[in-house]
């Protein structure tokens, strides 16, 4: 354990901002520092004893206005492994459901004196609004269709561990880009690290100005993933579709679902990713999703805890510096 | 479709081919279902042993017509028309390819229905029959239909036929989505609330006859919305059945802005005007309703100038029980597969428009819009062509109509231009 603590001390740098709200909060050196630190946490998490005291005495509040078992437990585990007092507030059943405003919630929260606040909300910009009203550091765990920056970070960590580098790789982000906060965070981070990013999907599910995001846009799946090193599938967010974006899931699967046949045009060493939860047989075929020789989907979950530990530890380091 | 392997030389003909802009003497050889050679001028064809030679006696050879807008009763309303009876009428009228509208029963809104039409057409072995797919499920205007799967199965374009997609968001999504497949979307410019219950164009005629009318403006209102959405989405778009001078002005502006917009007009709106409904004859009850003479003249001019791209028959078979009713209670529509070509020839003589310019709108223009190889007299192109005596007069009698429904506004009119032979993939399917 001594080795790990030394490594952490060597790699831990204070987070560049008070909050982690969007991918653009990080410059390339910050991204590299976080990835290097996360690597240490990956090793730690694979050991029998996983507990550290970097966040000892700190209070971490997970505030999820939207259900997300995966992200919520990932943050909870990250906080606990770093020694924080972690509480989960499920806002679906709280006073918010009874009409309390987001600002009221912030006032209540402030009274609890948390140090770190992890927020997921269905409205874009909700995390940024809370950040203005609370006295602690806020981590955006997904706000509407805006961003999910820790997901972007864990995706990058998964890619870097699989290939040894990110720069120069061709990464195709496929599917429901329009509704995807994951895609918005990933395009920024991957571009910053020198990857070639492509966005692939039906025109109804790609925002009209996506070609100005620094990514090439494709509406033909085979053209879009041809030669790609990474094919990152997105969940088709049917619950966000207030009208006809696609004719049917069977048509979507036919043209944009990832199966072996379409994947054959990608690079030989291609890796497949998905932020989960997956609609099997809609955006991805089980044969591909479950093939551990190409799929990084399980790795993504593991990297999620490590990447979030890196973010929380860096934010805490900043808090210490400020005191 | 079975291809005839016997080679035929059509000599001493007048070739009319809008694709190559050629109208003059020539000969043409058909072999293995395709046009094996085209010879412009009076050069003789020699050195071809065993070839069947047909002397055309200076009659015209032109590409077979492509009709983008045809209703058949099949499936769902076979007493009105079947794919077979429509195919027979098409072959007799010189139409070698036609597109079936999707508002059948059930609606052509999924790939299995596209397959059904293609399979039935193959079995009939007369002319090429292709389906158009619905743009929204059930032509209901609410949910997008499976445009990609139908496109793959062989649907040539997408339309809700005479149903208006009222919800602008839905049409916008359809246009955006179709762009991914470079699919052509057609939409009727018909403002639904103004058009509700109307059976004629508003004006003195309708008022005098006591018929409920719709202002011609209803067309332009909807066109402006549609063209705005096309500008937003960059889709390939067909203004389906343009019928007013005001609509033409909108169309010209859209084309000038560089939008990928084309327009169709029904032959009926080039031939008839609102005066024709004067006797309450229900064969003139059409949708859109017949317009004023100034609209008709503007449409003819726009066609001659190439502003309108495509002429369609808008073949709509209605059995007697749907037409033998008071004017306002009868079903709109007229058949037209057999009279499309003679009507165009009539326009040529009456308005002094070169025939090649009129034929363009039923051959190469629809072929290009639909991505078909046919519609041209070109070496290697499918041998879908017709031999026509352009001058020959005839009167259309009910007994000559091959459609199961006989609702033709041309009935008992004298027309000019007789189709002597129709070839599809090199096979003679009419005029033995």
Defining key terms:
heterodimer; A: 323 residues; alpha/beta; five-stranded parallel β-sheet; four-stranded parallel β-sheet; 12 helices; 41% helix; 14% strand; globular; B: 432 residues; eight-stranded mixed β-sheet; 14 helices; 18 strands
Question: How does this structure look, described?
Answer:
- The complex is a heterodimer of chains A (323) and B (432).
- By secondary structure, chain A is α/β, with parallel strands linked by helices.
- Helix content of chain A is 41%, strand content 14%.
- Chain A has twelve helices and nine strands.
- A five-stranded parallel beta sheet of chain A has the order 7-6-5-8-9.
- In chain A, helix 4 crosses helix 5 and helix 6 crosses helix 12.
- Chain A starts with a helix and ends with a helix.
- Chain B is of the alpha/beta class and 432 residues long.
- In chain B, helix 2 runs parallel beside helix 3 and helix 7 runs parallel beside helix 8.
- Chain B is globular.
Report the principal-axis shape of chain B.
Answer: globular
Count of distinct strands of chain A: 9
**How many helical stretches of chain A?**
12
Radius of gyration of chain A: 19 Å
| Distance, first to last CA of chain B | 18 Å
Q: How does the major sheet of chain B shape up?
A: 8 strands, mixed
Beta-strand segment tally of chain B: 18
Question: Which consecutive residue ranges of chain B, at least 5 long each, have pLDDT under 50?
Answer: none
